[in-house]
Amino acid sequence: MILFILGDVVTSNSGLMGGTSDVMGEVGGEKIRYPEFEKKVETLMENYKVNMQKDNVDQATADQLREQAWSMELNNLILGKEYQKAGVSCGPDELYDMCTGRNVHEQIRTAFTSKETGQFNPQDVVKFLHDLPNREEAVQLQWRTFEDAIREERIAQKYKELIKGGMFSTTAEAKTSYEETERTASLRYIRMDYMTIPDSSVKVEDNDLKSYYNEHQKDFKQDETIRKVEYITYDVKPSADDIKEGEDWMSRKKEEFTTSTNDSLFVYQNSDAPFDSTYKPKGSLPPSLDSLFDAPTGTMVGPYFENGSYKIAKLTNTKMISDSVKARHILIKIQNGDTATAQAKADSVRGLLKSGQKFGDLAKRFSEDPGSAIKDGDLGWFQQGRMVKPFNDGCFNAKKNEIFTVTSEFGIHLTEVTDKSAASKQVQFAILEHKVEASQKTFDKIYQDAQKFAADNSNASFFDSAVVKQGLNKRIADNLKEGDKNIAGLESPRELVRWAYKANVGEVSKVFTFGDKYVIAKLTDIREKGTLPMEAVKDQVTAGAMKKKKADMLEEQFKTKAAGATTIDAIGQKLNLPVAPVDNVTFSNPYLQGIGNEPKLVGTVFGMKAGQVSKVIRGDAAVFIVSVDKFNEPVATKDYSATQKQIADQRKQRSDYEVFNALKEKANVEDNRGKFY
User: Fold this and answer.
1) Residue 600 to residue 582: CA distance in whole angstroms
2) What gap in Å lies between CA 572 and CA 625, rounded to an integer?
3) Is-above-0.70 flag for pTM?
């Protein structure tokens, strides 16, 4: 039973250490060493395998579990000290109360709730704890791990509530917030968009770039080191010989398939795709098969090529069958491979059904499919092929109101078909499929081509020149972080990312194999954390400096062409530009209808007086001049309690995230996991 308490505990697999140091991270001056960290990962992995009843952990899950282990380590090192400073703890008596008392932990309540009665009895927990010393060491270890987890959870909960208890809002804050939200402005504006000036007419000098870069250095700060890689791929695709081999194979098999008397067995023995026993109505088949809907049984079509495979289809049967059914079920899961116990329970429930108890009541009481249990077990209407095959076939072969049991990968289903649609003609096809795949000879040939490219173009200039001469498609992987595991279009490219963090700029890689692609890469850029040098952000700086130049030019047009004009209408006439109105503008929302997001404009408006015309405002998309027609004052009030509560609640909601991030920043977390995994 304890196995279900631990729930979603997760795992990892071992990685290879990079370099000679075993320090994989540092938090607040405390080093995280690989051997100790990996032991914690292995503990999570063992718990995961037990809980999920698996012998191994796949790579994707292992990566997720390493992330969880890292998060746990950060929480322990960053928040652990804070818990001690605040004097927050969870003693033995409190822990015991969480297991057997008035404040039982939800996981314990779930694990020790009787499946027969649906009731939780704390004495069952007491009995379990009393017997724990006599149980296997693995079970004892799991329980201790679980106790540690819920103790830490309770401590964290207390700390969070302590922080939230200090979150409040003053009356002055609430009043300001109320006015910023409820006070509205009606205004008119003139705009001149930056895009009205062609880039070619703007000359940006070096001093313009330097000035813009120096003024906006905070915009070019990054928290992590990143890499940029350019790469080419040699994609492995079937050759003409491979395609001919597939065609020849199918031609040889066609005669055997034609004379076969057991088509499903023939498909099982010879096809690359399993036999599909479902029946399909007219219109639901591909055009190549739909045309055979009224053909005699045994009619064949093919070979034809579809989605990378040669296929032959044979019409095997015709039936009058419902295309959809409505059913309800009671699911009994098979625990630890014990089918006999699950079947006995299903038989017992069926006996209760026969004794006159209602299906819906029994579903709510016994079904382990919570989504349908709350609806009396009802699954609604579903079409052929929508459910797992054993359940699907059982439902479509059963009669209306028939009750039966069927076993699937989810467990044992005690099922009743409550309704069926009108029967219509449907057909079944046996499809022999042969996937056309690249042969080893083809793999070898393409690998040799990739190897030759890598050998002939081992530096950056040769690489770039060869890409152009050979007309290859050069791809870019930018903003690669040391711990990244994904690059779009490449299968499990972790090795490429690790190479990028060992290589020098301009270095060309060996040939990497990622699925059906051979990859050769070139490291083009390294951007260390901190403020990026101007060369690294040249494009952004140039765009920003050009925008500033355009703003200068547009502002000058306003000043010269509209000189002497004192009203918004007069300025519009002199510039031959329309004057547009906007209503219901609030300080709290910088988005303006018909304009977009313009915080500088909104901020300027609420610093003006009614009837006043602004100076030129340099916005995000254009330069503006605005005139405030009027301000609409909010309803006067002295009671700001609702606003105060809203502000305090918002702060409480953000406190968990923001407190941890503030502490994390203060701890100067150094993450070197990318050197180990």
Assistant:
1) 16
2) 10
3) no
